[in-house]
User: Fold this.
Amino acid sequence: MADGSALRVVELAGGVGGAKLAHGLQAHLGNGLTVVVNTGDDLERHGLLVCPDHDTIMYTLAGIDNRDWGWGIAGETFASAEMLARYGEETWFRLGDRDLATHIVRTRRLRAGERLTTVAAHLQGALGIAAQILPMADEPVRTQVRTDEGWLDFQTYFVGRQQAPEVRELRYDGLAAARATPEVIDALAKADAIVVAPSNPFLSVAPILGVPGLRPAIDAVRSRGVPIAAISGIIGGRALKGPADRILASLGHEATALGVARIYAPWVDLFVLDAADEALAPAIRALGPDVLVTDTIMGDDAARARVAATVLEAVAARRR
Amino acid sequence: MADGSALRVVELAGGVGGAKLAHGLQAHLGNGLTVVVNTGDDLERHGLLVCPDHDTIMYTLAGIDNRDWGWGIAGETFASAEMLARYGEETWFRLGDRDLATHIVRTRRLRAGERLTTVAAHLQGALGIAAQILPMADEPVRTQVRTDEGWLDFQTYFVGRQQAPEVRELRYDGLAAARATPEVIDALAKADAIVVAPSNPFLSVAPILGVPGLRPAIDAVRSRGVPIAAISGIIGGRALKGPADRILASLGHEATALGVARIYAPWVDLFVLDAADEALAPAIRALGPDVLVTDTIMGDDAARARVAATVLEAVAARRR
Assistant:
């Protein structure tokens, strides 16, 4: 990697795919990595604020994520959840005992008047994370999903209904009243590169870009020559995890890396394509971005670090 | 027992001693038992409302209390608490994973506008308790303890400082603004007998009696001939549990069952004395109340049921 360790990189990310890439990037960049995370998936459970995307990334960067499940904390137990169920609480959104502590502390601090960004920094600091994870906004944003059953809030669709209903339309409640935080603006202003994670373009990346003030800040750094790279979360026409392929299709897009590239092309300099999709490279290049073809599946620590290194080399090369 | 099963009994109670007696009484009375519980020990931890006396009684009546510890839930685990500590939360007041669910549900419902009494009924119903446990008031009351180090809130003194400091004075913050609830007034109005648990006269019973409207309601039922019995929590000059003996002494009372009897004598008809203190019976009778001498230590289920039966027989006999 060409001097990647001195780079300051901002990653725009949703949950699992964003976490894997962040883990690889953190291994190279340490505190040079800032992750701006989607908060549209956030929800209240049992009176506590849960931030699934933030916490997935936080636990992953802290090395305490549960890799068998793809969510939650390693060695997690569910004694609280059993008791909550006994009290008649809905527990379809399963919260482990350790995970619950995160939401308890977050909720207490928010009620005491702290900003979500400040609370997140406290949690991350306690877990000893090198990188910083910034909520895309302090104000609540709640993604809503229109299905043939009507509008569902995101986690009801995603966890409660297991992504079964077809997605007809998306709405980001609260987004218009949200504001890009000083921390996000500052991180973007100092960035040497921006990397869009292999996250869902509509459920994870669109809400981030929709935060008032955030897109102009990205455009401003890009106009200074700061490269923006995006990694496709669709490989061989399928999402590695989650419903991104079906959502692309049901919203009228092509459910391929090319479909993703069409969405990002207007503002992205480099599109990272999995080797399995190499045949799509000419069509993507024709849209504008350069294309980097590599193996993008991040199964283990080594793969995460390798993908991150490849992306960092490519963006560092573009800065020269 | 003489027709005790048809009696409606109100028990005034603090935590552990109150729970043991309540367990014995519930075995005979089922839903004929109403426990009015002290809330002066309540506290906020991690932004959640904890009601230690209520919960000790609730867990005991549900048969899920941890008898090895004398607090909390059987088989309890502490994964959440470990994580809370990692986040820098003070965890000297140790909350187990199952116990935490109680406080989470309570706090959520209170924030949604429910009364403490209603929330408590929901929790008890979920755990399948026959008796009802009524908080002495819906409004927050917080017992404060003056020591040579100054005023401490109750749990800081009781758990945080392990009752080490000498108690110079007590204060029940919020008591003047509290009101006897309709449920407590109704239970007292229908009571065939009132039983004061072997709880701390100052820390547990005094706050209950101090709730505006509660003492007049007790006086009214007593004036109708409803018997009031009290059980000494001091045996052989020592509290079975907790600092009652030292608090009696430091507040200028005799740290014996006679000292307790002097406090209750003006409004109690029957004083239940442990066999070990039989020599005190004449002095207590001279204060006014009848005295019932029996073995009052409630070590196991059989002892709890036996003590309860003895008390119920005595109060039933007084009604004839």
Remarks:
- Residues 301-319 of chain B form the longest helix (19 residues).
- DSSP finds 13 helices and 14 strands in chain B.
